Amino acid sequence: MSLDRASPAVRMAAPALSRRRKRAAAPRSLGEEVYGRIRRDIVGCTYVPGESCSESQLAEAYGVGKAPVRWALAALSREGLVIARPRQGHTVAPVTLESVDEVFGLRLILEPAAARLAAGRADIPLLEELHGRVTRGLRIGDRRAERRWIEANNDFHIEITRAAGNDRLTRIVASLLEESQRTMHLLTFVFDRVKSMGPDHRALIDTLARGDGAAAERVAREHLENSRRLVMDALLAR
């Protein structure tokens, strides 16, 4: 039924309903924005695992009211990045050995196979550029530099997976890499050992450029196993 044919009461109620819907949508839209900002800071370890974060503290930090912060925390809780504590607010979820091992376990299944498929097909100049950003980009204590280093490292791995020619595989690997960003920040505490990742990337580029799928698969697996050991050592040392 159109508004023209509706009763006077319905026609009078429609504008009010529209206004209520707009008011209801506004906090959600702001909540999504605040969610993105808090999530970025959690993933980037501005808020470290185990740190408390109350609605009032976050509202003040981001210059917003409590309603959008409450919406953002509910979304982050569903995602597993924060934990709600009754009458105690929220805490940033810990990075556990089990979760790290699960992510690396999946990556070890997917990425070596992707490297085999990417041999002879990868964009070598782009990989060289990303490799350069990884090897020279980390400055300890500089959060922005750390974030750029992690992004360059992730882009390196995603680009290899993309060259395999399977979009679904690329999305899965990208999701796993995003999930492990907090873990990667822990590697900055063992920077001397992080530098050992450089030769792994170099060897992987060389095998891809030669089109040697078997060697690329082997090097990718060895690289991920080395990375898993580094992360586990960093977690156990904290």
If helices are DSSP runs of H or I spanning 4 or more residues, what is the number of helices?
A: 11
- H/E element order: HEHHEEHHHHHHHH
Q: What is the overall shape?
A: elongated
CATH superfamily of the largest domain: GntR ligand-binding domain-like
Distance between the termini: 65 Å
Taking strands numbered 1, 2, ... along the chain, how are they ordered across the largest sheet? 1-3-2
For the largest beta-sheet, the strand count, sense and barrel status come to: 3 strands, antiparallel
Task: Give a brief description.
With 238 residues, this protein is mainly alpha-helical.
Explain what this protein looks like in three dimensions.
By secondary structure, the chain is mostly helical. It has eleven helices and three strands. It has two domains: 8-92, Orthogonal Bundle (Arc Repressor Mutant, subunit A); 97-237, GntR ligand-binding domain-like (Four Helix Bundle (Hemerythrin (Met), subunit A)), CATH 1.20.120.530. It has helices at 8-43, 55-62, 66-79, 97-118, 124-136, 143-163, 167-179, 181-186, 191-194, 197-210, 213-237, and strands at 52-53, 82-85, 89-92. Strands 1-3-2 form a three-stranded antiparallel sheet. Helix 4 (97-118) runs antiparallel to helix 11 (213-237), helix 5 (124-136) runs antiparallel to helix 10 and helix 10 (197-210) runs antiparallel to helix 11. The radius of gyration is 23 Å and the shape is elongated. Residues 20-27 have low confidence and may be disordered.
